[in-house]
Amino acid sequence: MSTNLSDTERGQDDKQQTSSLASAASAGGRAGDKIFSGLSLGAGIVIFVMLAAVAAFLTWQAAPVVGIPASSVTGGNGFFSYVYPLVLGTLMAAVIALLIATPIGILVALYISHYAPAKVAKPVGYVIDLLAAIPSVVYGAWGMTVLSPALAPFYNWLSETFGFIPLFAGPASATGRTMMTAGVVLAIMILPIITSLCREIFIQTPQLHEEASLALGATRLEMIRQAVLPFARTGIISAIMLALGRALGETMAVALVLSTGGLQWSLLTSGNNTIAAEIALNYPEAFGNRLAELIAAGLMLFIITLIVNLIARTIIARYQEFSGAN
């Protein structure tokens, strides 16, 4: 009897120890979750505070522009007349870059993820990633010394053939340092962003979706259209908007390529400038009212970028419920 009681007591003690250990582990896990949750919340608050601080600083430093007489602003016609050509130039360069880079990036990503064998896909992916590591000043120097002279004859032909279209009106620049060249350079710079993100999204397409489409008799192209692209729609939009943000804020590459001047609607003539390039070229020697002008132009770029991101989030939220991931 004593042996049986001791065994029973021993079993109860083991259960109590196991229960206490489980309770301690659970308490430790809850504490870890609380710590991690607090750190995550703190990181989010820090980002929000930094964004608000940047906006407040730009607004404070740009405020003197309101009191500057119109005749004292660069150009002599007021701040709006000074900044709107820069805003249009920024948007023109970014749109050209997106129009060139988006289809190429998506097609390259599809080739890597669904067509190329592994021996080819990996080297191509590495090369695409390496493009993102090249400094922007290198792109700018290459665009100024190599790409611009190479494109000049093509611009002459384009102006002679399609000069009736205002965007291609002549005379074309003899140096090739035009808004079109800047857009091409930006397209090459944002191509790795679009390609890399789209490639990762395409790879994550559920295998069952692809196999079901192929089993119903679809070709590989039809399978991509029916299964891959609907699944990746929101991701593609996110990649494009991220690349647009890079294109809007690019500085040195555009500053080196463009032959700055007044607003030109033709993409083949010299002139035009962007906000980022204007700030980079003039900020080191700016002071007083000129410094306030440049910071106010930076505030305009900040607002444009914020609006672009809000539009992107709205588009993503609108189409997310129709994504193939749901």
Automatic annotation (TrEMBL):
GO terms for molecular function: phosphate transmembrane transporter activity. It holds the Pfam family BPD_transp_1. Part of the binding-protein-dependent transport system for phosphate; probably responsible for the translocation of the substrate across the membrane. GO terms for cellular component: plasma membrane. GO terms for biological process: phosphate ion transport. CDD domains: TM_PBP2. It comes from Kocuria soli. The chain crosses the membrane at residues 39-62, 82-112, 124-142, 184-203, 223-244, 291-312. It is a multi-pass membrane protein. The gene is pstC. This is Phosphate transport system permease protein. It is found in: Cell membrane. InterPro entries: MetI-like, MetI-like_sf, Phosphate_PstC, Phosphate_Transport_Permease. The lineage of its organism: Bacteria, Bacillati, Actinomycetota, Actinomycetes, Micrococcales. Keywords: Cell membrane, Membrane, Phosphate transport, Transmembrane, Transmembrane helix, Transport. Belongs to the binding-protein-dependent transport system permease family. CysTW subfamily. Residues 87-312 form the ABC transmembrane type-1 domain.
